[in-house]
Amino acid sequence: MIFVNPQGTIPISLTGRWCALNCAHCGARYLMHMRGFEEIDKYAQEGIQSFLLSGGLDVNGKLPFSNAVLRKLRFLKEKYSLQYNFHVGFPDKPLTELKEVADVVSFDFFSDTKIMRKIYGIEVEGSRMIEVMKSMGIFCVPHVTIGVDCGRITHEYRSIEMLSEYFTSVVLNIFVPTFGTFYESCKPPTIGQVKDLFEYAKKLFKIVTLGCMQPKGSYRSALQNELEGIADVIVKPVRRVVNDFDGCCALLLKQISQEVGSNVR
Question: Going from the N-terminus, what domains does the chain have, and what CATH number goes with each?
C-alpha cells in the first residue's frame, strides 16, 4: 500500500471563487480554499513543483481557460520544471490545447445522466466522456465520488464497471457533507457501503486509490482501517508519519503507469 500526502501539490482555481453551477454537494465552497493563478510563480520560487489546476465550471460544465493562461502556464512549466494536473470538468470534445501543458487530466465520472443532472444541473453521457478522455493524448485519471447523491449509492457500481473497460486505475472519493451546500445535512455513505465498492473495484482495476475527499474524524480513521489490504493507495493517511509520495495522487498514478504500462486498456 502506498501512502500519499497531497499537500505537495498546490490547488489553483483558474476562476477565482466564480462558478456558474451551484452543485448540490459543493456550492463553490471548495473554491474558497484554492489559490489564485497569479500565485503559481511565487509557489514555484519556493520550491513547489506540482499544481492542481481546477476552478469553477461554466454553464456547459467545462473549466474555462484562455490561450493566454495556457501560454503563461507553459512558460512557468518550462522555467521551473513544473507538473500540472488539470481537473477539467465535463468536456464534450478532446482538449487538444492541453497536450503541451498538462501532465495529467483528472475527471469525475457518472454513468447515470439523471444523477449527474441532479448534482450538477447538466448531463454528459458516460460513454462520451470516456471517448473524449481516451482521445485526449494525455494521461487521464477517472474519479468516482461514492455517495455523491446525499450519501446514497446510486450510479457507483455501474460507473466503476464502465471505467474498468478502458482504464487500469481509478480514484474513489467519499462524499463529504459540506456546510453551505444543498447537501449539508446529508450523511456520508456507511463505511460498509464504501468497503463493498472498493472490493468490487479491486476486482476490476490494477490500482484502486482512496482519494483526498474523505469525511474527517473517526469516520476517516475507521474507513482507512477497513480498507487496509484493499486500497492500493491511500491519500491523507491518519496513522502514517512518513508518506511515500508528496503531491496529487493522479501524478503518482502517472508515475506508476510509466513504470508498469499505460492507464488506458
Answer: 2-260 (3.20.20.70)
